[in-house]
Specification:
330 residues, alpha/beta, disordered N terminus, 15 strands, binds adenosine monophosphate, 4-stranded mixed β-sheet, UDP-N-acetylmuramoyl-L-alanine:D-glutamate ligase
Length: 330
């Protein structure tokens, strides 16, 4: 198979060849932030680098299927960053350029708990007036990922889409705190919501993860994934619960974008499989975790930007070696 993005467009359900076999796959549309980030971790730092929920997730998703984005950047957005997105064959028709500066987020992590980002600055800039417009031709894309942006904007996107086959929702503590009502409205419209352990507790007020996950299901989504950082992820839905460990790494250099990469890898792989069923959802969680494991090993988007299917496959082999549980003999 050619290493990356061997696509033959056929109105969002094209074919591609994998080891000689033709596979029918669906395309993905992602709406979220395209940003510049200032990052400081115990191991690396940068005053300004490419970031944003849409950026990480689309680069991850584009490894597995054709991916389009909708977002906004400012006049300062660099040609080399557009070039990087284009090199992944990401559809940029929905990426608007507005007067002003690109969204800027600054955060840091403490060595004791690198799962928690401490926000120092959120400059909305062009995001303040952002009103996502889905290009007409992208409105029937079957797999939709509402990456982390204001839930009111996420709802505007849902209104423009023509009945996606599968909608995935992400959010963050900020929106749970300041836009809860909007968030609860969007939650009623989605198939699956991803939250990390702190967000699920904040949203539901419950401290036991499984109980909190079930409470999320009562608010609308058919299924929920609770991400537990280095401890893996848990899927809760009508079929019960599925637990996937995370790939153990010697060192996390920069956790920024781990959640976005997980979600992008997850939906990209699910769309590549084409059918939403429990088996494919479980596989997609494994792929999401593996993809995210590359993001956190480098500063900013470098890990996911340099990723190939061959690297994911290689890591999957290592992962399966230690992740399977022995059957006990009782
Ligand atoms: P993650 O580490 O996966 O939660 O995502 C980190 C990314 O989210 C960074 O690249 C930020 O640019 C982006 N981000 C941070 N705050 C916001 C926000 N309020 N709205 C949208 N994106 C944000």
């Amino acid at each position: 198979m050619s290493e990356n993005n061997n696509f033959y467009d056929k109105k969002f359900e094209g074919n591609f060849k994998d080891k000689g076999k033709v596979i029918i796959m669906s395309e993905v549309l992602i709406v979220g932030s395209v940003a510049y980030d200032g990052l400081k971790t115990p191991y690396a730092s940068t005053p300004r680098t490419l970031g944003g929920s849409c950026t990480y997730s689309s680069m991850a998703s584009s490894l597995y299927t054709k991916t389009h984005i909708v977002g906004v950047v400012g006049e300062d957005f660099r040609a080399q960053d557009i070039k990087l997105l284009k090199s992944k064959k990401i559809g940029l028709d929905g990426l608007a350029r507005a007067k002003g500066k690109t969204f800027f987020w600054k955060g840091y992590y403490k060595k004791e708990d690198m799962n928690v980002a401490i926000t120092l600055k959120t400059d909305l800039n062009v995001f303040a007036q952002f009103d996502p417009k889905i290009p007409e031709k992208d409105r029937s894309i079957p797999f939709l990922f509402l990456a982390n942006i204001h839930p009111g904007l996420q709802m505007n996107v849902i209104r423009q889409m023509k009945k996606p086959k599968f909608t995935l929702l992400d959010t963050m503590n900020l929106w749970i705190n300041i836009a809860r009502k909007d968030l609860l409205n969007v939650m009623k419209k989605v198939d699956l919501m991803v939250l990390n352990d702190q967000e699920v507790k904040l949203l539901t007020g419950m401290s036991h993860l499984k109980e909190a996950a079930r409470a999320v299901l009562k608010l609308g989504p058919k299924r929920v994934i609770v991400k537990k950082g280095e401890h893996g992820a848990m899927l809760v839905g009508p079929e019960g619960t599925f637990l996937a460990p995370a790939m153990p790494l010697d060192r996390v250099v920069d956790p920024t974008g781990a959640g976005d990469t997980f979600a992008g890898g997850f939906i990209g792989y699910l769309a590549r499989r084409g059918t939403v069923n429990l088996e494919n959802l479980k596989q997609a969680i494994v792929v999401g975790s593996l993809t995210a494991s590359f993001t956190v090993q480098e500063l900013g988007v470098k890990g996911v930007a340099g990723l190939t299917l061959a690297k994911v496959r290689q890591r999957a082999k290592e992962f399966y070696r230690f992740a399977s549980l022995p059957l006990i003999k009782l």
